[in-house]
Amino acid sequence: MKQLFTLMMLAGVFTFSSVNAFAQDSTDVASDSTVVEADSAALEEEPAVAIAEEITEEPQEETEATFHQIVKEQFIDGGPTFMGIVLLCLILGLAVAIERIIHLNLATTNVKKLLANVESALASGGVEAAKEVCRNTRGPVASIFVQGMMRMSEGIEMVEKSIIAYGSVEMGKLEKGMVWISLFISLAPMLGFMGTVIGMIGAFDAIAEAGDVSPSLVAGGIKVALLTTVGGLIVAVILQLFYNYLVSKIDSLVNSMEDASISLVDMLVKHNLSK
């Protein structure tokens, strides 16, 4: 009986101790799992926080480049040698074009008003009064009138020849400087192509030294080489617009000169017949 009681006591002790041990183990496992979950949560939060900081910081760091900055970067990437020459062509071409525009605008004359003043001067004071009116008027049309009326004493045929001859002189003055604009229009793209060819040669030299065709190396060299061509074409387009405007302005002035010269001859014939 005592042995049975002792065995029951030992069984109870072992059972209690095993239960306590199992409870401690489960508690430790639970605590460990809690720590692991906390650590994993912390690890997951840290990248999220870092990504959030990067996302919030990126818009602050990135700033949109202005047009001036882009042009400046592309100019530097293209190389100062040929890009500088192309820029010089643009500056000189624009200088000549602006000078021609000012000259042609100053040469523009109100032909109808001039013809009316000449006709009234011929009717009131004769050829000398008409010549004085033309001398006080600015422009090629008035200069042609003066040259024609200076030959009035030699006949109408000499007046016509004088008008034609001096009209060619005035046309040459109007077209002065146009050849330089045409030169810069042709020169800028050629310089750009030359810079491209030289840049391609440099790119192939770099490939030969590297001993391997690297896409980044080839792409970078080709980009730098083509920038000079783009610059030359842009300069040519800008100058071509000014050139076409000047040509149209010259054509308009020449047409007005021819029409006014015919009207002057008719007035001089009418003036001679009225004497």
Elements, N to C (H/E): HHHHHHHH
Tell me about the biggest sheet? none
Instruction: Supply the number of helical segments.
Output: 8
In percent, how much strand structure appears in the residues? Answer: under 5%
Rounded average pLDDT: 75
For the termini, the CA-CA separation is: 174 Å
What would you say this structure looks like, in words?
- Keywords: Cell membrane, Membrane, Protein transport, Signal, Transmembrane, Transmembrane helix, Transport.
- It is a multi-pass membrane protein.
- Residues 140-258 form the MotA/TolQ/ExbB proton channel domain.
- Its main location: membrane.
- It is found in: Cell membrane; Membrane.
- With 275 residues, this protein is mainly α.
- It folds into two domains: 1-63; 69-274, no CATH class.
- The chain contains eight helices and no strands.
- It has helices at residues 2-61, 67-78, 80-107, 111-135, 140-149, 156-174, 178-210, 215-274.
- Helix 3 packs antiparallel against helix 7 (178-210), helix 4 crosses helix 8 and helix 6 (156-174) packs antiparallel against helix 8 (215-274).
- The radius of gyration is 46 Å and the shape is rod-shaped.
- 21% of the residues are buried.
- Residues 1-62 have low confidence and may be disordered.
Give the SSE map:
Elements (H helix, E strand, L loop, with lengths): L1 H60 L5 H12 L1 H28 L3 H25 L4 H10 L6 H19 L3 H33 L4 H60 L1
Helix pairs in contact: 2-8, 3-7, 3-8, 4-5, 4-8, 5-6, 5-8, 6-8, 7-8
Summarize the structure.
This protein has 275 residues and is an all-alpha fold. 90% of the residues lie in helices and 0% in strands. The radius of gyration is 46 Å and the shape is rod-shaped.
